[in-house]
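To illustrate the input format used throughout this study, we show a single complete record. The first block contains the structure-token representation of the backbone; no residue identities are included at this stage. The design step must infer an amino acid for every position from geometry alone.
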């Protein structure tokens, strides 16, 4: 595909698949989020407010927005994490929210 070929699309020029952006986001999260047992999503929401363009430098900014202790499993909690994937200009390209079961530290 070329910019000319992409001219007739809703993006107007070349754009990466949102799932390609998600794959890069997940790799960056797995490498940086301090969860000993890894990331296992119970529920997720993903939105792509802007397309990722060829040559973009991506950064992921994540935060834990909620921790809900489990009532039935005292060694676990459900953690809600929100991550924004931004380009080199700070434009938000993707918003990813996940609820994940995590183990408490002993």
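Output of the design step:
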């Amino acid at each position: 595909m070329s910019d000319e070929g992409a001219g007739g699309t809703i993006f107007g020029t070349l754009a990466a698949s949102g799932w390609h952006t998600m794959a890069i986001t997940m790799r960056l999260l797995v490498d940086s989020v301090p969860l000993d047992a890894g990331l296992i999503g119970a529920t997720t929401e993903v939105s792509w407010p802007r397309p990722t363009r060829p040559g973009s430098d991506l950064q992921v900014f994540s935060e834990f927005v909620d921790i809900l202790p489990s009532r039935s499993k005292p060694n676990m909690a459900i953690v809600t994490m929100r991550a924004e994937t931004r380009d080199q200009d700070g434009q938000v390209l993707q918003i990813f929210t996940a609820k994940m079961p995590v183990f408490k530290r002993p």
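Structural context for interpreting the output: The first strand starts at residue 43 and ends at 47. Residues 18-32 form the longest helix (15 residues).
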